[in-house]
Protein backbone atom coordinates (compact mmCIF):
# COMPACT_ATOMS: atom_id res chain seq x y z
CA UNK A 1 0.00 0.00 0.00
CA UNK A 2 2.83 2.37 0.79
CA UNK A 3 4.62 1.96 -2.55
CA UNK A 4 1.65 2.99 -4.72
CA UNK A 5 0.94 5.89 -2.35
CA UNK A 6 4.53 7.11 -2.59
CA UNK A 7 4.45 6.74 -6.38
CA UNK A 8 1.22 8.70 -6.64
CA UNK A 9 2.61 11.39 -4.34
CA UNK A 10 5.79 11.72 -6.39
CA UNK A 11 3.83 11.87 -9.64
CA UNK A 12 1.46 14.43 -8.19
CA UNK A 13 4.32 16.59 -6.90
CA UNK A 14 6.09 16.32 -10.25
CA UNK A 15 2.93 17.30 -12.12
CA UNK A 16 2.37 20.21 -9.76
CA UNK A 17 5.93 21.48 -10.26
CA UNK A 18 5.55 21.09 -14.03
CA UNK A 19 2.30 23.07 -14.05
CA UNK A 20 3.80 25.82 -11.90
CA UNK A 21 6.88 26.01 -14.14
CA UNK A 22 4.78 26.18 -17.29
CA UNK A 23 2.55 28.82 -15.71
CA UNK A 24 5.62 30.94 -14.99
CA UNK A 25 7.46 30.43 -18.27
CA UNK A 26 4.79 30.00 -20.95
CA UNK A 27 2.98 33.38 -20.53
CA UNK A 28 6.23 35.25 -21.21
CA UNK A 29 6.79 33.53 -24.54
CA UNK A 30 3.08 33.52 -25.40
CA UNK A 31 2.88 37.28 -24.89
CA UNK A 32 6.10 37.83 -26.82
CA UNK A 33 5.19 35.61 -29.76
CA UNK A 34 1.56 36.70 -29.66
CA UNK A 35 2.52 40.36 -29.94
CA UNK A 36 4.81 39.61 -32.89
CA UNK A 37 2.17 37.48 -34.62
CA UNK A 38 -0.56 40.06 -34.05
CA UNK A 39 1.62 42.91 -35.30
CA UNK A 40 2.75 40.98 -38.36
CA UNK A 41 -0.73 39.70 -39.17
CA UNK A 42 -2.39 43.07 -38.69
CA UNK A 43 0.22 44.85 -40.78
CA UNK A 44 0.04 42.22 -43.51
CA UNK A 45 -3.75 42.42 -43.68
CA UNK A 46 -3.62 46.21 -43.66
CA UNK A 47 -1.06 46.30 -46.47
CA UNK A 48 -3.04 43.64 -48.36
CA UNK A 49 -6.18 45.77 -48.35
CA UNK A 50 -4.65 49.25 -48.51
CA UNK A 51 -2.23 48.79 -51.39
CA UNK A 52 -4.48 46.54 -53.47
CA UNK A 53 -5.62 48.23 -56.71
CA UNK A 54 -9.29 49.15 -56.81
CA UNK A 55 -10.09 46.94 -59.82
CA UNK A 56 -8.38 43.96 -58.21
CA UNK A 57 -10.19 44.60 -54.93
CA UNK A 58 -13.62 44.63 -56.57
CA UNK A 59 -12.78 41.56 -58.65
CA UNK A 60 -11.86 39.63 -55.52
CA UNK A 61 -14.96 40.89 -53.74
CA UNK A 62 -17.06 39.64 -56.68
CA UNK A 63 -15.39 36.23 -56.62
CA UNK A 64 -15.78 35.96 -52.85
CA UNK A 65 -19.43 37.04 -53.14
CA UNK A 66 -20.20 34.27 -55.63
CA UNK A 67 -18.56 31.64 -53.44
CA UNK A 68 -20.24 32.98 -50.30
CA UNK A 69 -23.65 33.07 -51.98
CA UNK A 70 -23.40 29.46 -53.14
CA UNK A 71 -22.20 28.17 -49.75
CA UNK A 72 -24.77 30.06 -47.66
CA UNK A 73 -27.59 29.32 -50.13
CA UNK A 74 -26.89 25.59 -49.95
CA UNK A 75 -26.34 25.57 -46.18
CA UNK A 76 -29.01 28.01 -44.97
CA UNK A 77 -31.26 29.82 -47.44
CA UNK A 78 -31.24 32.14 -50.41
CA UNK A 79 -32.30 35.12 -48.28
CA UNK A 80 -29.43 34.56 -45.86
CA UNK A 81 -27.07 34.25 -48.83
CA UNK A 82 -28.24 37.58 -50.26
CA UNK A 83 -27.80 39.27 -46.89
CA UNK A 84 -24.31 37.81 -46.54
CA UNK A 85 -23.31 39.02 -50.01
CA UNK A 86 -24.61 42.53 -49.30
CA UNK A 87 -22.70 42.63 -46.00
CA UNK A 88 -19.54 41.46 -47.77
CA UNK A 89 -19.84 43.98 -50.61
CA UNK A 90 -20.44 46.85 -48.22
CA UNK A 91 -18.10 45.64 -45.49
CA UNK A 92 -14.81 45.14 -47.32
CA UNK A 93 -14.60 48.64 -48.87
CA UNK A 94 -15.61 50.08 -45.51
CA UNK A 95 -12.89 48.01 -43.84
CA UNK A 96 -10.37 49.20 -46.43
CA UNK A 97 -11.28 52.84 -45.81
CA UNK A 98 -11.13 52.33 -42.05
CA UNK A 99 -7.68 50.74 -42.20
CA UNK A 100 -6.45 53.42 -44.57
CA UNK A 101 -7.75 56.21 -42.34
CA UNK A 102 -6.27 54.59 -39.25
CA UNK A 103 -2.93 54.13 -40.99
CA UNK A 104 -2.82 57.77 -42.06
CA UNK A 105 -3.62 58.98 -38.56
CA UNK A 106 -0.89 56.83 -37.05
CA UNK A 107 1.63 58.08 -39.62
CA UNK A 108 0.51 61.63 -38.92
CA UNK A 109 1.18 61.07 -35.23
CA UNK A 110 4.62 59.54 -35.89
CA UNK A 111 5.70 62.26 -38.33
CA UNK A 112 7.10 64.83 -35.81
CA UNK A 113 9.58 62.31 -34.36
CA UNK A 114 10.68 61.43 -37.90
CA UNK A 115 11.26 65.09 -38.70
CA UNK A 116 13.34 65.50 -35.54
CA UNK A 117 15.46 62.50 -36.54
CA UNK A 118 16.11 64.08 -39.94
CA UNK A 119 16.98 67.41 -38.30
CA UNK A 120 19.40 65.74 -35.89
CA UNK A 121 21.01 63.80 -38.73
CA UNK A 122 21.38 66.95 -40.82
CA UNK A 123 22.85 68.79 -37.82
CA UNK A 124 25.43 65.98 -37.51
CA UNK A 125 26.61 66.66 -41.07
CA UNK A 126 24.57 64.18 -43.11
CA UNK A 127 22.83 65.10 -46.31
CA UNK A 128 19.04 65.10 -46.44
CA UNK A 129 18.69 61.64 -48.03
CA UNK A 130 21.46 60.22 -45.85
CA UNK A 131 19.64 61.49 -42.77
CA UNK A 132 16.43 59.82 -43.97
CA UNK A 133 18.20 56.51 -44.67
CA UNK A 134 19.90 56.62 -41.25
CA UNK A 135 16.56 57.11 -39.49
CA UNK A 136 14.64 54.32 -41.25
CA UNK A 137 15.44 51.56 -38.77
CA UNK A 138 14.52 53.80 -35.84
CA UNK A 139 11.03 54.52 -37.14
CA UNK A 140 7.93 52.67 -35.92
CA UNK A 141 5.52 50.86 -38.18
CA UNK A 142 3.77 51.90 -40.46
CA UNK A 143 5.83 55.05 -41.07
CA UNK A 144 8.92 52.88 -41.56
CA UNK A 145 7.41 51.17 -44.60
CA UNK A 146 6.47 54.49 -46.19
CA UNK A 147 9.96 55.93 -45.66
CA UNK A 148 11.53 52.73 -47.00
CA UNK A 149 9.45 53.14 -50.14
CA UNK A 150 10.58 56.78 -50.36
CA UNK A 151 14.24 55.73 -50.11
CA UNK A 152 13.74 52.91 -52.61
CA UNK A 153 12.22 55.25 -55.18
CA UNK A 154 15.07 57.71 -54.71
CA UNK A 155 17.62 54.95 -55.25
CA UNK A 156 15.94 53.71 -58.43
CA UNK A 157 16.35 57.07 -60.16
CA UNK A 158 13.21 59.02 -59.27
CA UNK A 159 13.74 62.58 -58.19
CA UNK A 160 13.24 63.46 -54.55
CA UNK A 161 10.40 65.82 -55.47
CA UNK A 162 8.50 63.03 -57.25
CA UNK A 163 9.10 60.63 -54.35
CA UNK A 164 7.85 63.22 -51.85
CA UNK A 165 4.76 63.97 -53.96
CA UNK A 166 4.00 60.26 -54.15
CA UNK A 167 4.50 60.04 -50.38
CA UNK A 168 1.93 62.82 -49.94
CA UNK A 169 -0.53 61.09 -52.30
CA UNK A 170 -0.39 58.00 -50.10
CA UNK A 171 -0.74 60.01 -46.88
CA UNK A 172 -2.71 63.17 -47.79
CA UNK A 173 -2.80 64.84 -44.37
CA UNK A 174 -2.18 68.45 -43.37
CA UNK A 175 0.98 67.57 -41.44
CA UNK A 176 2.40 65.65 -44.39
CA UNK A 177 1.61 68.53 -46.74
CA UNK A 178 3.46 70.97 -44.46
CA UNK A 179 6.51 68.71 -44.29
CA UNK A 180 6.63 67.99 -48.02
CA UNK A 181 6.20 71.67 -48.88
CA UNK A 182 8.91 72.67 -46.39
CA UNK A 183 11.37 70.13 -47.79
CA UNK A 184 10.69 71.03 -51.41
CA UNK A 185 11.07 74.76 -50.76
CA UNK A 186 14.23 74.19 -48.76
CA UNK A 187 15.81 72.03 -51.44
CA UNK A 188 14.80 74.41 -54.21
CA UNK A 189 15.66 77.79 -52.70
CA UNK A 190 18.00 76.83 -49.88
CA UNK A 191 17.32 77.46 -46.22
CA UNK A 192 18.34 76.57 -42.71
CA UNK A 193 16.93 73.06 -42.96
CA UNK A 194 17.82 72.01 -39.41
CA UNK A 195 16.15 74.98 -37.73
CA UNK A 196 13.13 74.81 -40.02
CA UNK A 197 12.69 71.07 -39.40
CA UNK A 198 12.94 71.51 -35.64
CA UNK A 199 10.38 74.30 -35.62
CA UNK A 200 8.08 72.29 -37.88
CA UNK A 201 8.31 69.21 -35.63
CA UNK A 202 7.56 71.32 -32.55
CA UNK A 203 4.62 72.95 -34.31
CA UNK A 204 3.17 69.59 -35.40
CA UNK A 205 3.50 68.20 -31.87
CA UNK A 206 1.68 71.21 -30.46
CA UNK A 207 -1.04 70.86 -33.09
CA UNK A 208 -1.48 67.17 -32.26
CA UNK A 209 -1.70 67.94 -28.54
CA UNK A 210 -4.26 70.70 -29.12
CA UNK A 211 -6.27 68.42 -31.42
CA UNK A 212 -6.38 65.59 -28.89
CA UNK A 213 -7.26 68.06 -26.15
CA UNK A 214 -10.14 69.41 -28.21
CA UNK A 215 -11.38 65.90 -28.96
CA UNK A 216 -11.26 65.02 -25.27
CA UNK A 217 -13.24 68.12 -24.33
CA UNK A 218 -15.85 67.46 -27.02
CA UNK A 219 -16.18 63.74 -26.26
CA UNK A 220 -19.16 64.32 -23.96
CA UNK A 221 -21.04 66.28 -26.61
CA UNK A 222 -20.43 63.58 -29.22
CA UNK A 223 -21.60 60.93 -26.75
CA UNK A 224 -24.77 62.92 -26.09
CA UNK A 225 -25.38 63.06 -29.81
CA UNK A 226 -25.12 59.27 -30.06
CA UNK A 227 -27.44 58.83 -27.08
CA UNK A 228 -30.03 61.13 -28.63
CA UNK A 229 -29.75 59.14 -31.87
CA UNK A 230 -30.33 55.70 -30.36
CA UNK A 231 -32.69 56.71 -27.53
CA UNK A 232 -35.84 56.88 -29.73
CA UNK A 233 -34.95 53.53 -31.30
CA UNK A 234 -34.60 51.91 -27.89
CA UNK A 235 -37.85 53.46 -26.67
CA UNK A 236 -39.65 52.17 -29.77
CA UNK A 237 -38.56 48.57 -29.17
CA UNK A 238 -39.40 48.81 -25.45
CA UNK A 239 -42.85 50.17 -26.30
CA UNK A 240 -43.30 47.43 -28.88
CA UNK A 241 -42.52 44.83 -26.22
CA UNK A 242 -44.81 46.37 -23.59
CA UNK A 243 -47.69 47.64 -25.77
CA UNK A 244 -47.57 45.87 -29.15
CA UNK A 245 -50.99 47.21 -30.08
CA UNK A 246 -49.84 50.82 -30.03
CA UNK A 247 -46.77 50.20 -32.17
CA UNK A 248 -48.88 48.28 -34.67
CA UNK A 249 -50.35 51.62 -35.76
CA UNK A 250 -46.87 52.68 -36.77
CA UNK A 251 -45.69 49.47 -38.42
CA UNK A 252 -48.88 48.21 -40.10
CA UNK A 253 -50.44 51.40 -41.49
CA UNK A 254 -49.25 53.60 -44.29
CA UNK A 255 -49.40 56.76 -42.19
CA UNK A 256 -47.43 55.13 -39.38
CA UNK A 257 -44.79 53.82 -41.76
CA UNK A 258 -44.46 57.28 -43.31
CA UNK A 259 -43.98 58.72 -39.82
CA UNK A 260 -41.26 56.15 -39.07
CA UNK A 261 -39.47 56.95 -42.32
CA UNK A 262 -39.69 60.68 -41.58
CA UNK A 263 -38.34 60.14 -38.06
CA UNK A 264 -35.45 58.07 -39.41
CA UNK A 265 -34.59 60.79 -41.93
CA UNK A 266 -34.71 63.51 -39.27
CA UNK A 267 -32.56 61.44 -36.91
CA UNK A 268 -30.01 60.87 -39.66
CA UNK A 269 -29.92 64.58 -40.54
CA UNK A 270 -29.55 65.52 -36.88
CA UNK A 271 -26.70 63.06 -36.43
CA UNK A 272 -24.92 64.44 -39.49
CA UNK A 273 -25.34 68.00 -38.17
CA UNK A 274 -23.86 67.02 -34.80
CA UNK A 275 -20.91 65.34 -36.54
CA UNK A 276 -20.42 68.40 -38.73
CA UNK A 277 -20.40 70.74 -35.74
CA UNK A 278 -18.32 68.63 -33.36
CA UNK A 279 -16.06 67.00 -35.93
CA UNK A 280 -16.13 63.30 -36.85
CA UNK A 281 -12.57 62.51 -35.84
CA UNK A 282 -11.21 59.81 -33.62
CA UNK A 283 -8.03 59.78 -31.60
CA UNK A 284 -6.07 56.78 -32.85
CA UNK A 285 -3.43 55.45 -30.52
CA UNK A 286 -0.23 54.19 -32.08
UniProtKB/TrEMBL annotation:
This is Flp pilus assembly protein TadB. Residues 114-239 form the Type II secretion system protein GspF domain. PANTHER family: INTEGRAL MEMBRANE PROTEIN-RELATED (PTHR35007), PILUS ASSEMBLE PROTEIN (PTHR35007:SF2). One of its GO terms (cellular component) is plasma membrane. The chain crosses the membrane at residues 6-27, 48-74, 223-242, 254-274. It is a multi-pass membrane protein. It is found in: Cell membrane. It comes from Pseudidiomarina maritima. Keywords: Cell membrane, Membrane, Transmembrane, Transmembrane helix. InterPro entries: T2SS_GspF_dom.
Amino acid sequence: MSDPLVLVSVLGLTLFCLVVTLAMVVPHYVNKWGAQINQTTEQSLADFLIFMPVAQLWMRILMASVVLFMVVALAVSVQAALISVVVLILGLPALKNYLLTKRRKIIDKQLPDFILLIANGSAAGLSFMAAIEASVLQLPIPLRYEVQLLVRRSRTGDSLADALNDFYRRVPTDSMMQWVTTVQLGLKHGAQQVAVMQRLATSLQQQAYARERLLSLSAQARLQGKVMLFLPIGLFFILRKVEPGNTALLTETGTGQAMLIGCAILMFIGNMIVKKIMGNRRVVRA
